[in-house]
């Protein structure tokens, strides 16, 4: 219930104006967002690297309003790869295709993405195409597959809550694609996604096994100790070494567990979002955990 309200509000412009103009909400957002400018994200990546964590930088933004904005986002990401290389950071990039103009045509969007992938490949780096709401799944899979035909510097994300995910994995593995597995963060109807958490979790474990058995390097993105334990157990039982896959978690969430997994010898990548357009990302993080809403409410209504 709370989850649907918050995800619904993540699309409200009035709510966005209210939250963005509220200094305490901005301050609270810093729990999940590294800052509004690239140097903030680079500093967070450097700090993560020093702790033994890899990073993935996400310049926040989705559903851009014009082709011009998409082209600007493309140039921004090309610059991000240059900065990562200059600073010698262990970091790649995660981006959303709607930020590269997917709403303005699949070919247009693929061209923007291809320019970024080529640049990343030239620097020996990697682009992860985040997965958005189910209206975009088919096109994201298709664009990834086409880009992967030309370069191995690109991969995408599969959401365990979607019924279609096993088939998508099959298709993407045939193309040799690296996949990030997550549970899924959007509000989806029961026609396309498992409504019950236990079914999403069961599908996550099932898909994790398919991915780990594929021999391709994938990312298991979750903060759920049960999913992590299932992955650790499956890898150990099947002779899959700790450096043949990585765990991934979001900036500011379960930092204790992130460090523990590094101490246990696993690879861990932290997803570092930054930028001014943090509102929808922030709302999805609140939706994942009611305690986060209380945290925000306490900050918003504090007397000082
Ligand atoms: P679950 O929601 O069951 O949470 C397990 C436990 O983790 C909770 O009990 C709590 O302790 C902790 N936790 C989880 N979320 C928290 C939060 N917001 N605040 C505090 N604690 C929290 N989704 C998507 O649709 N497309 C994408 O491309 C991506 N990309 C992505 C990258 C990375 C690196 C991660 C980690 C996640 C994503 N996601 C995503 C989000 C993902 O789909 C999912 O919504 C969240 O990871 C929450 O699911 P968990 O697997 O953590 O389990």
What are the key terms here?
single chain; 304 residues; alpha/beta; TIM Barrel; 8-stranded parallel barrel; 13 helices; 8 strands; 52% helix; 14% strand; globular; binds dihydroflavine-adenine dinucleotide
Structure, explained:
The protein has helices spanning 2-9, 13-20, 23-29, 38-50, 67-86, 106-122, 137-150, 165-174, 197-213, 225-237, 255-263, 279-288, 290-300, and strands spanning 54-59, 91-95, 127-129, 154-159, 178-182, 218-221, 245-250, 268-274. The chain is an alpha/beta fold and 304 residues long. The protein has one domain: Alpha-Beta Barrel (TIM Barrel), CATH 3.20.20.220. It starts with a helix and ends with a helix. The model has no long low-confidence stretch (mean pLDDT 94). Dihydroflavine-adenine dinucleotide binds at residues 130-131, 157, 159, 182-186, 221-224, 227, 248-250, 253-254, 271, 285, 288-289, 292. Residues 130-131, 157, 159, 182-186, 221-224, 227, 248-250, 253-254, 271, 285, 288-289, 292 line the site of dihydroflavine-adenine dinucleotide.
CATH topology: TIM Barrel
Helix content: 40-55%
Count of helical stretches: 13
Q: So, CATH architecture?
A: Alpha-Beta Barrel
Widest sheet: strand ordering: 1-2-3-4-5-6-7-8
Provide the residue-averaged pLDDT.
94
Stretches where pLDDT falls below 50 for ≥5 residues?
A: none
Helix and strand sequence: HHHHEHEHEHEHEHEHEHEHH
Q: How many strand elements? A: 8
Radius of gyration: 18 Å
Helices and strands: which structural class?
A: alpha/beta
Q: Structurally, how many domains make up the residues?
A: 1
What small molecules does the structure contain? dihydroflavine-adenine dinucleotide
């Amino acid at each position: 219930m709370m989850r649907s309200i918050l995800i619904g509000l993540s699309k409200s412009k009035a709510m966005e104006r209210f939250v963005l103009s509220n200094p305490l909400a901005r301050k609270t957002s810093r729990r999940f967002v590294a800052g509004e400018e690239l140097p903030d994200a680079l500093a967070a990546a450097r700090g993560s690297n020093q702790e033994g964590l890899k990073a993935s930088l996400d310049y926040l933004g989705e559903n851009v309003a014009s082709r011009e904005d998409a082209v600007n986002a493309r140039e921004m990401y090309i610059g991000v790869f240059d900065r990562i290389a200059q600073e010698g950071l262990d970091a790649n990039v995660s981006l959303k295709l709607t930020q590269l103009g997917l709403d303005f045509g699949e070919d247009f969007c693929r061209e923007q993405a291809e320019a970024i992938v080529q640049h990343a490949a030239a620097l020996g780096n990697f682009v992860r195409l985040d997965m958005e709401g189910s209206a975009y799944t088919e096109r994201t899979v298709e664009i990834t597959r086409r880009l992967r035909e030309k370069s191995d510097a690109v991969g995408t994300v599969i959401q365990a809550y979607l019924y279609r995910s096993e088939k998508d994995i099959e298709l993407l593995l045939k193309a040799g694609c690296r996949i990030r597995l997550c549970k899924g963060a959007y509000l989806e109807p029961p026609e396309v996604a498992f409504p019950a958490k236990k079914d999403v979790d069961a599908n996550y474990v099932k898909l994790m096994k398919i991915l780990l058995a594929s021999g391709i390097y994938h990312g298991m993105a979750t903060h759920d100790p049960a999913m992590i334990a299932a992955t650790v157990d499956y890898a150990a039982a099947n002779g899959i070494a700790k450096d043949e896959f990585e765990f991934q978690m979001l900036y500011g969430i379960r930092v204790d567990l992130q460090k523990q997994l590094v101490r246990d010898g696993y690879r861990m990548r932290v997803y570092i979002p930054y930028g001014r357009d943090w509102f929808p990302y922030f709302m999805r993080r609140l939706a994942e955990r009611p305690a986060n809403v209380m945290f925000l409410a306490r900050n918003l209504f504090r007397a000082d």
